Structures are given as structure tokens and as C-alpha cells.
Amino acid sequence: MADSFKNFIDGAWVEPSTGQYFENRNPARRSDLIGNFPRSSREDVDRAVAAAKAAFPDWSRTPAPARGDILRRVGDLLTARKDEIARAATREMGKTLQETRGDLQEGIDTAYYAGVEGRRLFGQTVPSELRNKWAMTYRRPIGVCGLITPFNFPLAIPTWKMFPALVCGNTVVIKPAEDTPHTVALLVEVLEEAGIPRGVVNLVHGLGEEVGAAIVEHPDIPVISFTGSTETGSIIAQTCGRMHKRLSLEMGGKNAQIVLADADLDLAIDGVLWGAFGTTGQRCTATSRLLLQDEIHDEFVARLMERARGLKLGYGLEKDVEVGPLIHEASLQKVEEYIEIGKGEATLAMGGERATGEGLDDGYFFQPTIFTDVKPGSRLATEEIFGPVLSVIRFKELDEAIRINNEVKYGLSSSLYTRDAVASFRAFQDLDNGITYVNAPTIGAEAHLPFGGVKQTGNGHREGGWEVYEFYSETKVCYLDYSGKLQRAQIDNYEASPY
Q: What is the pTM of this model?
């Protein structure tokens, strides 16, 4: 009989008020039931928010270096349990063990980085324009943060959101994706073991339209961080705007890898295989478009298809597997819909069907798929698919490639393969994305740099790096006047008008 899991509220593992649960199954082996997780309600969210709100005063006054010390312990514990949690993440998310180990390592890196930032929450000291007056700023916490995370990075993305929020002195209520609830439950176990105080971290499982909506709409949550679809993000933004909440959105992408004729083609092929088919294309930074210069187009496509046909599909815990399943049936159906769209717009060069055979029939597997003769502006070229589908587009000159890259509504990641230094800096300057790589694929963010995009990929905030600490804190400006007299700033700081 499968285990039944619980929410974590006010320092205790508790059953949902509804008494209802949903199943969490292995997407590579649908017959494998991982467990039953709480289908929580607004009442459970209310309890979690009340606990977080009650814990906030003491936690916010805990010295930031001491808050960082707890997260350094979290990093140590994640390191000790890395293989165990990675295997659990592969079982419920589907990507290969190598990838989930990377997911765990990103969480470990984020923990250690956050631990250090507990000693680096810098303000500024600046000269006052008046005599005998001191002026400075410092960063202070905001309150309860509502965190809503996706399935594709079941440990890394929760840590991107949670650890900076905690170091800044906030408390949190987190709702993980219903497709990957177990990994976040394991993360919260680690936080509990590391000594996080009661009520500081609260975990509420459930469905987006029930628990997620309740978090977004809760009047006692002033900060929301969401990673997911642009459509859902737009709805969340409307609510947060109406309620004057601080909001960070990380949403869709339609990322392009551009290959110039002077590039190292072997390196570029390695990059697009990893970018397009790693994580089965289920990354917001996945390489969805491949832009090839005319001179190399035919050779590159032939070599790429030969390599892509050799990719091994299967359960991510099995040896030598390179591509796992999609997350669920709805994702399979969405990819199939785009295959039909693509057949009417371009040439289906390989793939295009559900993958079947030994070890595949019990999972949500889809063949790595490549379309050629894709036209800029077409649906294949502009809409996010979130699956192992690559659209190949020809171009003549770099200016044309830049224009094609920029014409989509998203602006997360881009990549250019070239040996030309001038072209490299043109890419940094002119590609309209939050992230640009040269001679590397569109995926591969590092924990100590900001992550995020422009246009409909986000709303201007960043995850990771130093900028996220600005999102989870507010600037307080402080003046100390020790002149012993009334000083009226702009009125008194000049004896006569300069005009």
C-alpha cells in the first residue's frame, strides 16, 4: 500500500483539513505509485499563513548571519543525502539520475551561496547634503512569502525561491507542483533537521486552482514568487496588482541556438542535443529553435539527426538512459497537437510519435523530434511546446538570425556558436533575451548569477544571484541629524539661490 504524505505547518507534519489526497505516479512507469499527497484547501493555506505570520517577528530579528548558518547546515545535509533525494526526484519527475544529481547540486550551491549572503545584505552609506547629518540605507525583510514552484526542477527551483527569502528574514509558505510533491517534502525534512524554527517554513500540497490560488489571493501574503506558464502568470499578475503584492514571475521561453558557418560544428551539435532533448525539452530554457547559416545547414542537420536517432530513451534510473518521459498524459497530447500543426507548416524530418517498445510502454515517452524548413513567424517557430521538439530555421547573415531570435514574445535564453569575437559581442548586445551564451547551449544557469528573461518571460525580477536578495527585501532609508538644530534640507542647504 502506498504511503500517505502530509503538509508541514507550524513545525508539524499534519493531515489536510479536507481528508482528501491525490496520487503521485512515476511518469516512466505509470504503474509505480509513489504516494498519496494532500489535496489541501484554503483552510490549510490559512493555517500555514497564520503560522508563518506568527513566526515572522522573531525570525526577522534573528541576525542575518545566524539565518545563513542554518542554510549552510541545509547545504551539508543535502550533500549527505544527494544521491537518495536525486533518485526520488528521478522517480517522480522522470529526468535522468545524472540530471537530478545536477538539480540537487544546484540546490546545494544555492544553500551555500545564501549562507554567505547572510553576511552580505549590504546597504549603502552616503554623504548627506547637510552638515552634522548621517544618511544610510539597509535592507529589511517584508513578511510572508508565497512560493509556487514547477515540476521540472523539483529541488533547485524551490531552493532558488526559498533560501534567499529565508536569509532576508522572511517566512514562507510553499506549494510545489502536484506532479513532483515528494522532492519538496524531502527538502522540508532537511530544513527541519537543520533547525529551522517553527512556523518559518510551511509546506502545503495541493492543486494550483485550489491551493495556488489561495496563496496568491491571501491578504497576509505580501510577496509572491511563481514559476510556470505565461498564461497562469498573467492571471497571478492581475491579482497581485489589485492587491499591491510584490511579484516575481518566471515563465515561458522559445529559445534559439544560432550556429554561424565558422563555428565548431561538433561542439554546436553537442550543445543542441543537450539543449533540445535534455530534460525531454521540459525546461523554460530548452533549445526550441535551431538557426543554421545557409552554408552549413544541410551538413549540420544530417549529422544532428544521426546523433539524435542514437539517443536512448527510458527510465532515468536505468544505465545509459539519456532521455526520460514527459511529465504526464496532457503533456504528451500537447506535443502531439504541435506535431500536427508542424506537419502543415514544415517538414517532419524525424520523430513525431510516441515512443514505444521495451521499457517504454508504461510511461509518457515521446520520440526526439526535428522539423526542418520551419518558417519564421510560424506557430512552430514562435509558440512554446515544452517537449522534445526542435524547429530548424535557415538564415543567411547574422542580422537575419538576430531578427528571427527577437521576433517571438518570449525573451529568456539564447545561444550563438561562432569563432568570431565581433559576432559574439553583437549577440550579447542585440539578442533580446535575459541570458545569452556563446559556444554553449541555451541551458546551464549558475546559482550565483541572476536568472530570468524579458518580454513575456517575466516581469523584470530575477531568480538567483545577488538580484534576488533585492526582491525579497525592502530598502529602508535612515537619517541621523546630530546638528542640534532644525535643518530643512533643500531649503537651508544653500545660503542663496544658485539662479
A: 0.97
